[in-house]
């Protein structure tokens, strides 16, 4: 990349999202019911504070690629091939876009993310556990 102009995070995010067919929370919920893998990449402290989606796979961001690369010795049993439908979510839908684009780089071109992340999922009234920051 020597000689290339540096890109801002906003440019990198826009490029990542340009590669994805992002889902709203209801579409993600429907796809998960049809067999797609919902993958929560938030750190443990954030999940404890915000809540969780029952049945979602917990794969923190720092190990995501190793867990889903079908050629990795550290892959999850669910990482059966490049055609697996992986729907990544984070808190608000920013980090998840970068993560889903990274899965595309591994050949998992059906990977995507949830617009608005966990917070949008919860706001849509979809199944979620209460976190420690939830209002009574």
TrEMBL record:
Task: Note the PROSITE patterns from the entry.
Answer: RHODANESE_3
Could you tell me which residue ranges the Rhodanese domain spans? 32-130
GO function term, MF aspect, one: thiosulfate-cyanide sulfurtransferase activity
A family per Pfam: Rhodanese
User: What is the protein name stated in its UniProt record?
Assistant: Rhodanese-like domain-containing protein
Q: Which organism is it from?
A: Actinomadura montaniterrae
């Amino acid at each position: 990349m020597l000689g290339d102009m540096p890109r801002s995070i906003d440019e990198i995010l826009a490029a990542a999202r340009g590669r994805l067919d992002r889902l709203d929370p209801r579409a993600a919920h429907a796809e998960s019911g049809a067999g797609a893998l919902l993958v929560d990449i938030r750190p443990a402290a954030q999940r404890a504070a915000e809540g969780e989606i029952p049945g979602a796979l917990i794969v923190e961001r720092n190990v995501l690629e190793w867990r889903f690369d079908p050629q990795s010795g550290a892959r999850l049993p669910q990482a059966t091939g490049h055609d697996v439908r992986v729907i990544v979510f984070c808190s608000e839908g920013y980090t998840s876009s970068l993560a889903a684009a990274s899965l595309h780089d591994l050949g998992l071109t059906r990977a995507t993310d949830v617009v608005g992340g966990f917070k949008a999922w919860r706001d849509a009234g979809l199944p979620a556990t209460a976190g420690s920051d939830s209002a009574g």
